[in-house]
Design a protein that fits this description.
This protein is of the alpha/beta class and 328 residues long. It is built from eleven helices and eleven strands. The chain has a seven-stranded mixed beta sheet, sandwiched between helices. Strands 7-8-6-9 form a four-stranded parallel beta sheet, sandwiched between helices. The chain binds adenosine-5'-diphosphate. Residues 13-15, 45, 76-77, 80-81, 105-109, 111-112, 115, 130 line the site of adenosine-5'-diphosphate. Adenosine-5'-diphosphate is lined by residues 13-15, 45, 76-77, 80-81, 105-109, 111-112, 115, 130.
C-alpha cells in the first residue's frame, strides 16, 4: 500500500563520488513526476541539524548530470551521532513536513540513516555512493567506475615515463579498507605487483617478484599500493624496497583526491539515474531502511542491516594470481 508520503528530501553525505549529481537529479525529478514536494539538504546530516533545507524543483537540477562533486555539498557531522543532534535533525524535518529521506553515501551515511529511521520513524532509502565499491548488496557503487577510469588514465601516463627512464614506480590509490580499486587497476594497467589491505605481502616477497622481472630484462615496473596497506603508505614501502633492491631508480606517486573528482562515466551516470529513480519509487511503495543497488543488471533491494554487516569486496584471488602471471 502506498504510504501517505507528500514531501521527500535528498542529501549527500560522507566522501563525495562522481555520479552523486546525476542521482540527485533523478531523485528530484522522479519525486516531482509523482506529485511529491522535493527538498534538498545541504552538507549532509550537518544541514539537517542546522536546518539548511531548500525546496527543489525540476529546474534546480538542470545541467548537473555530467558534473562531479555534489551540488548539495557533503560533510562529516559528528553531532548527528549524538541523540541530541538527531533530535534536532528530526525537529527540522518535521518543521518542513518531510516524511522521507533519500541518503546518498557510504557505510557511515547508512549507519546514521538506519539509526535515524529506528529512533524517529523517518522513512529512509540509501543509495550507495562511494568510489571504494565496498558496500554489500550492490555490484557497483556510484563513482567507482569513474574513479577507476581516472586511475587507469594516470597510471598509463606514469607507465610512459617509467619506461622512458627505466624506473620503478610505486603508485598509491584510494581504498583504506577495500583493495577493489588497487586490484582491478593492477589488472587494467598491467602492474607488476599490487599491495592490498586484505592481504599481507612482505617486502621480501615483493622484492622477489620485482627481482624475477629484472632477471628477464624488465627495465621498468609499476607497483600499485592501496592506501590501507599494513606495511604503510607508498613512500614507506618504496623506501623498504629500495634498501633491498636498487636495480632501478625509484619514484612514488600518490594519486590522492584526484580520484574523487571529474565528470562521471557513462556507467556512473546510468547507474546514478537508475538508483535515484528506484529510491523514490521504493519510498512511494512503502519501503524503508533499505539500500537500492545493482546486482547482475537488475535493481536489487538490500536491508541497511545487511548492507552494513556484510563486507562487499571479497578479495578476488584469481585476479591477484593473474596479475602475477600476466606481468612476467
Ligand atoms: P561514508 O558515508 O562515506 O562512509 P562517513 O563514515 O564519514 O562517510 O559517514 C558520514 C556521516 O554519517 C558522518 O559524518 C555522520 O554524520 C554519519 N554517521 C556515521 N556513523 C554514524 C553513527 N554511528 N550514528 C549516526 N550517524 C553516523
Amino acid at each position: 500500500m502506498r504510504p501517505n508520503i507528500k514531501n521527500i528530501a535528498v542529501l549527500t553525505s560522507g566522501g563525495d563520488a562522481p555520479g552523486m549529481n546525476a542521482c540527485i537529479r533523478a531523485v528530484v525529478r522522479t519525486g516531482i513526476y509523482n506529485g511529491i514536494n522535493m527538498f534538498g539538504v545541504l552538507q549532509g546530516y550537518q544541514g539537517l541539524i542546522t536546518n539548511n533545507i531548500i525546496p527543489m524543483d525540476a529546474r534546480s537540477v538542470s545541467n548537473i548530470i555530467h558534473m562531479g562533486g555534489t551540488i548539495l555539498k557533503t560533510a562529516r557531522c559528528l553531532e548527528f551521532k549524538t541523540d541530541e543532534g538527531m533530535a534536532l535533525a528530526y525537529e527540522n524535518l518535521k518543521a518542513h513536513n518531510i516524511d522521507a529521506l533519500v541518503v546518498i553515501g557510504g557505510d557511515g551515511t547508512f549507519t546514521g540513516a538506519r539509526r535515524f529511521a529506528q529512533k524517529h520513524g523517518v522513512h529512509v532509502i540509501g543509495v550507495p555512493g562511494t568510489i571504494d565499491n565496498d558496500l554489500y548488496g550492490s555490484d557497483f557503487t556510484l563513482g567507482y567506475d569513474t574513479a577507476m577510469n581516472t586511475v587507469i588514465e594516470a597510471i598509463d601516463k606514469i607507465r610512459d615515463t617509467a619506461d622512458a627512464h627505466d624506473r620503478l614506480f610505486f603508485v598509491e590509490v584510494m581504498g583504506r579498507d577495500s583493495g577493489c580499486i588497487a586490484l582491478r587497476s593492477a589488472v587494467a594497467c598491467g602492474a607488476e605487483a599490487v599491495l592490498l589491505p586484505e592481504k599481507e605481502t612482505s617486502i621480501d616477497d615483493l622484492v622477489k617478484q620485482l627481482g624475477a622481472g629484472a632477471v628477464t630484462k624488465k627495465t621498468s615496473s609499476i607497483v600499485i599500493v592501496s592506501e590501507g596497506h599494513k606495511q604503510g603508505g607508498a613512500y614507506d614501502i618504496a623506501k623498504h624496497v629500495k634498501e633491498k633492491f636498487d636495480h632501478y631508480d625509484t619514484k612514488v606517486t600518490i594519486l590522492g583526491h584526484l580520484q574523487r573528482g571529474g565528470s562521471p562515466s557513462s556507467f556512473d551516470r546510468i547507474l546514478a539515474s537508475r538508483l535515484g529513480y528506484a529510491a523514490v519509487n521504493e519510498l512511494l511503495k512503502g519501503s524503508s531502511e533499505m539500500m537500492v543497488g545493482l546486482r547482475g543488471n537488475e535493481i536489487a533491494l538490500t536491508s541497511l542491516d545487511e548492507a552494513l554487516t556484510e563486507h562487499n569486496f571479497k578479495l578476488e584471488s584469481d585476479l591477484l594470481e593473474m596479475t602475477h602471471v600476466l606481468s612476467i
